[in-house]
Amino acid sequence: QVQLVESGGGLVQTGGSLRLSCAASGSIFSIFRINDMGWYRQAPGKERELVASINRGGNTNYADSVKGRFTISRDNDKNTVYLQMTSLKPEDTAVYYCKAIANIQYWGQGTQVTVSS
Fold it and tell me: What is the C-alpha to C-alpha distance for residues 45 and 33, in angstroms, rounded to an integer?
């Protein structure tokens, strides 16, 4: 069993920055099986969408809307994935969720990011 806990969300002004963290805990063997991790977001009334993903080898993928502004990274020793967000826009406002895939999918509880105009 794996639990994912996100942190780092908050309220920022347009153009500001935030860094989200997602720490995995639980069964060591389950954590070892995690290869892909990613960040998703969901705004009110909208579908949950992929923001960025990264595998254990460091290969990354970004949504077009965040390319050049967001950076995903991971620290395998700390079992943590990060999302550095810069040049934030109001349209980035959403609940951000961490996802990890081992034998099954795991989701965090989400952290709110609000970008004011």
Answer: 34
Give the tokens for residue 50.
């992929």
Distance CA 117, CA 54 (A): 30
Residue 46 has pLDDT above 90, yes or no: yes
Residue tagged 């967000």 (tokens): 85
More confident residue, 32 or 70: 70
Task: Report the C-alpha gap between 89 and 87 in whole angstroms.
Answer: 7
Integer Cα distance of 80 and 22 in angstroms: 5
Contact 49, 39 (CB under 8 A): no
User: How many Å is the Cα radius of gyration of the chain?
Assistant: 14
Residue 104 is which amino acid?
A: I
